[in-house]
Amino acid sequence: MSGRMHRGWHAAGRGGRGFGRGGWQQADLPNAEDASAWLQGRLPDEWFVEGPEVTVDREEILIVGELPALEGEFADTEAGRAERAAAASGRISRFRETTRDERIEIARQAEHRYQRKVAWGARLGDTVELFTVASVPVMTRLRQPERIVLDTLVDAGVARSRSDALAWAVRLVGQHADEWLGELREAMAKVDELRSKGP
Known about the structure:
This protein is α/β, with parallel strands linked by helices.
């Protein structure tokens, strides 16, 4: 089982470094760079067809694994695709229920090791469901032009509240700037490496 490690914006690959108003800030958190490897060794082999995708930030470790493919044929029609999606959702629900106790124990161990909450998810084909994910409040100060943008999204029915609108905007940036964000994370990791070699 080979895992994939994704670093969240705040983790910057160092487990406890985030970018704050004054520059780099060192949170008192254990390094989580080995989380994917640790989970690869800790998770039962039969759960996923390959190592799970592991995403880490300052607050949370998210583990999303690919479940074994569905058996049986589904027609390539709208009804067939709906049946496949329903079957996938049912399989994910079964995984969630049958693994609950063991996932709780693994999460307890990982939370002790890395001092972060653990969240889970499962993927089956095109269907992905996340469960036990954390919703973390983020304080920010916005000037009027930014507030007007959020209020426009609320007034247009795109979001229910300013908080919803801000989350929507962050998701949109993440979708359209993924390559740039990846390059930025790599650059931050290099800065970390150079800093560790310094006098």
